[in-house]
Amino acid sequence: LACPGFYIHWMMAKDQMSPDSHDWWRSLGVIPTDRSGGDTGSVRSALRYLRRGEAVGVFPEGQMGAHEGRLGPFHGGVGTLASRTGATILMITIDDTPPVHGVLAAFFRRSRARITVVDLLPVSRGEDPAALTRRLRQHFCGWRCAALRHIVRRAQINEKIREQLFTFCTVNQI
């Protein structure tokens, strides 16, 4: 994603990095994290960037492609970071990433991945992190349902199938 003057410090699980590549990832501004949940160093680093007005990228589902084709449960980290700083959340989706084994392999694989800017979600400093995480996921669900409804409305299908798709979207929160 090229945007002059705008840099994203992505949070990335340490288990996705080979031991000999940690310095390389750090030189790119990546914040190595431990999935166990007890990694306070990465949280402090992310908070430092956010307090300086810099952007931090978080995959709220824990990783890219974890729940391909549907929205998985969100981890609480994104709610905690935004709540502590009052940082506005830029909601994006990354779709059609190629299946690869290991993050580094993705750099060498041709891709037609799509990045979609969904919305900006304002956050109040001190907002309940768990409630914020739920609100973020609900906002994504609402956006995906609205997008699906728009596509279905434009499609030439009968009313019964259209209603089944709307019901499926609502029940499965996509």
Task: Give me the secondary-structure topology.
Layout: E1 8-13, H1 22-27, E2 31-33, H2 40-51, E3 55-57, H3 77-85, E4 89-95, H4 103-106, E5 114-121, H5 129-154, H6 159-172
Parallel strand pairs: 1-2, 1-3
Antiparallel strand pairs: 4-5
Task: Give a quick rundown of the structure.
The chain is of the alpha/beta class and 174 residues long.
Description:
The protein is globular, with a radius of gyration of 18 Å. The protein is α/β, with parallel strands linked by helices and 174 residues long. The protein is built from six helices and five strands. The protein has helices spanning 22-27, 40-51, 77-85, 103-106, 129-154, 159-172, and strands spanning 8-13, 31-33, 55-57, 89-95, 114-121. The mean pLDDT is 79. Strands 2-1-3 form a three-stranded parallel beta sheet. A two-stranded antiparallel ribbon has the order 4-5. It is 41% helix and 16% strand.
Gyration radius from CA atoms, angstroms: 18 Å
Mean pLDDT: 79
Number of strands: 5
Shape: globular
State the distance separating the first and last CA atoms: 25 Å
Question: For the largest beta sheet, what order do the strands appear in spatially?
Answer: 2-1-3
Instruction: Please mark out the parts with pLDDT under 50 across 5 or more consecutive residues, or reply none.
Output: none
Question: How many strands, which pairing sense, and closed or not: the largest β-sheet?
Answer: 3 strands, parallel
Strand content: 15-25%
- Name the assembly state: single chain
User: How do the SSEs run, as a string of H and E?
Assistant: EHEHEHEHEHH
Helix content: 40-55%
* Discrete helix count: 6
Tell me the structural class.
alpha/beta
